Each structure stands twice: as structure tokens, then as C-alpha cells.
Amino acid sequence: MKGKKFDGEKVRWDCIPWELIEGIAKVMTYGATKYNENPDNPNWPTVEGGKHRYFAAMMRHFMLDKNGEVRDLDSGHEHLDHFMFNAIAYAHFKKEENKTKAL
Fold it and tell me: With DSSP H G I counted as helix, E B as strand and the rest as coil, what are the percentages for the chain, rounded to 5?
């Protein structure tokens, strides 16, 4: 008899492409160093106008990659990694905004 495990409704963390996550972490490490962040109190979630600014940055990096520029000239990291970080940051601000709308 084989054992059973009822996990069909659970989040599938094994579906995440971890090799992509590392690029995001590298971009976040670069930003934390650049902006002298305290690990216990990161700067990016408190940027004024963050939703609009991170959306603009996300699209800038997307377009630079789309137009053939692979690496960001300032950081040396791939534009797609910056794009993905900015998408996360945008999502953070959007979800915070949605929480206030739900009240």
C-alpha cells in the first residue's frame, strides 16, 4: 500500500523558477548597498509615489531589454532582473492600495 498525502490545495512552491529569483535578490542586494539600507528596515517599500515610480522603472527596464540592451549600465545586472524587482515593488504598492480600498 502506498502512502497518501492530501496537498492538492496547497501552494506549489516547487513551481517557482528559483534561478530567476536569484537575479531579483542580486538587484535587491545592489539597491540595498546603493541606498545604504538597514536590513531590518528596507527603503524600497517607503518610497514616496512608489506605485508610479516602480511602474515607470519596470517599463524602462522592459523597453531597454526589448530593444536589445541586456545589462543595466549602472548596476551591471540584467534589465530583466531589474524589471522583475520593479514588478514586485509595484505589486507591493498596488496591494497596499487595494487593502485601503477594501476597508
Answer: 60, 5, 35
pTM of this structure: 0.87
CA distances 13 to 10, 55, 69, Å, are: 9, 26, 31
User: Three cell numbers at 5?
Assistant: 498525502
Q: What is the residue extent of each domain of the chain?
A: 24-102
Q: Which residues does 81 contact at the CB level (< 8 Å), separation at least 6?
A: 23, 24, 26, 27
Low-confidence ranges of the chain (pLDDT < 70): none
Nearest to 75 by CA among 37, 38, 12, 26: 26
Q: How many CB atoms lie within 10 A of CB 84?
A: 18
